[in-house]
From TrEMBL:
This is F-box domain-containing protein. Residues 69-381 form the KIB1-4 beta-propeller domain. Residues 7-37 form the F-box domain. CDD domains: F-box_SF. InterPro entries: F-box-like_dom_sf, F-box_dom, KIB1-4_b-propeller. It comes from Urochloa decumbens. It comes from the Eukaryota.
Length: 418
């Protein structure tokens, strides 16, 4: 039988570049020719730019090295096998450009691309300003000293000492990337304790650089080469991390006195800065077989859950150094959680709901203090202040808490990392 003519590779790549990740992976497994086009596309990074965010999670029904990926575009779950250390044993403290930032059982940090399986070790946790290694008789790190000071205050003169696996419970809050590590140069920024301070590392660095004196940071983004960092009272500071001497400038003064809400900053679809405030309501989960007790005990028994109750959106006005509340996102969509905060245009993502907020649980005290409690994950309608579940029944384990991920099939250019 005469063999059918193969489609030219350049045409295949052009078609594949328009596909969402699940379809792209399926196409790459059809035959040798299609796999070659898929591999070439991933190596050059010319895949579809508007990938719909997915929910990355672990599940009790899968192997310790496997993660679930729930596609909002297809409303379907997939399973990914990831490199060691096992994903179920890691904390996920950030998600940017298709990579997640994780803390392993020694409280060491890694970048991981769940789609390609590529992984990058970050500078040792012992190079963070407030962390010092404790060595055993054989010269091996066995514990960490954690010093309680910021650039402004000494909270305690005496350090706490933690086992290797427990430092991450108290140290890490959230992490961010300045750009896609697949392309070479990038910065990693940490919000870490005590009191939510900032440290950063450039690609290839062997240590973290501390950014005193301020603290109580809540969210960060990179815009036009600058780091924008927002505090719990709405202040926004900017930093040029590429400068020889990094200095901080005030972009926005404080806009509130108290911090009951969690705050996010995100770049809008027209380039403007938005400040998002998110509030929770604590709900009781009744169990007729249990008698009442104090809140601490009930939380310990999964008797209460924190649900997102209100989301308010503000536009930052740099000239007046004020924020203005806006009643609607229009055709825009927000993604909030341990991911880099995102604002997408619904017309480019037909599977997403305009004027809605897709959220995951990222309350530091709640997620690290009560790991067995049900996670707050859903879609919030800004028009009627109501939320709905992503999928029923729940697919994910409560810990590590799930995170939004924009799938990135681009493979690292090793030459750019040498």
């Amino acid at each position: 039988m005469e063999k059918s003519p193969e489609m030219p590779q350049d045409i295949l790549r052009r078609i594949f570049a328009t596909l969402e990740i699940p379809d792209l992976v399926r196409a790459g497994s059809v035959c040798t020719s299609w796999h070659a086009a898929y591999t070439s596309l991933c190596n050059t990074g010319n895949c579809r730019l508007q990938q719909t965010p997915c929910l990355l999670y672990t599940s009790e029904s899968t192997d310790a090295r496997e993660a679930g990926l729930y596609s909002l575009a297809e409303k379907k779950a997939y399973t990914l096998t990831l490199p060691d250390p096992p994903i179920c044993s890691r904390y996920i403290i950030g998600s940017s450009y298709g990579w997640i930032i994780t803390a392993d059982e020694r409280s060491e940090l890694h970048l991981l691309n769940p789609i390609t399986g590529e992984q990058i070790a970050l500078p040792s946790v012992t190079t963070i300003e407030q962390v010092k290694p404790v060595f055993d008789d054989k010269g091996v790190v066995c514990k960490y000293e954690y010093w309680w000071y910021t650039g402004e205050d000494v909270i305690s003169d005496t350090p706490s000492v933690y086992p290797l696996s427990e430092l991450r419970d108290v140290l890490f809050c959230k992490a961010f990337l300045s750009s896609d590590p697949s392309t070479g140069g990038y910065f990693v920024v940490l919000i870490h304790n005590p009191r939510c301070q900032l440290s950063f590392a450039r690609a290839g660095n062997d240590k973290w650089t501390w950014l005193p004196p301020h603290s109580f940071y809540e969210d960060c983004l990179f815009k036009e080469g600058l780091l924008y960092a927002c505090t719990k009272i709405g202040e926004i500071h900017t930093f040029n991390l590429g400068a020889l001497a990094v200095t901080q400038k005030v972009f926005l003064d404080e806009v509130k006195d108290l911090y009951f809400e969690r705050i996010y900053i995100v770049q809008g679809s027209c380039g403007e800065l938005l400040q998002i405030w998110r509030s929770d309501a604590v709900l009781r989960v009744d169990d007729e077989d249990e008698s009442d007790s104090d809140l601490e005990l009930e939380l310990d028994r999964d008797k209460h859950v924190c649900n997102t109750s209100t989301v308010t959106v503000h536009k930052v006005e740099p000239a007046s150094k004020k924020i203005v509340e806006i009643s609607s996102l229009g055709q825009n969509v927000l993604f909030l959680g341990h991911n880099q905060s995102l604002c997408l245009h619904a017309e480019e993502y037909p599977q997403l709901k305009a004027n809605h907020v897709y959220f995951t649980d990222d309350d530091y005290m709640y997620t690290t203090g009560f790991k067995n409690n049900r996670r707050d994950i859903g879609v919030f309608d800004l028009e009627n202040n109501s939320s709905e579940e992503i999928t029923t029944p729940q697919l994910w384990c409560n810990w590590p808490t799930p995170v939004w991920l924009i799938p990135n099939p681009r493979r690292m250019n090793l030459a750019s990392h040498n």
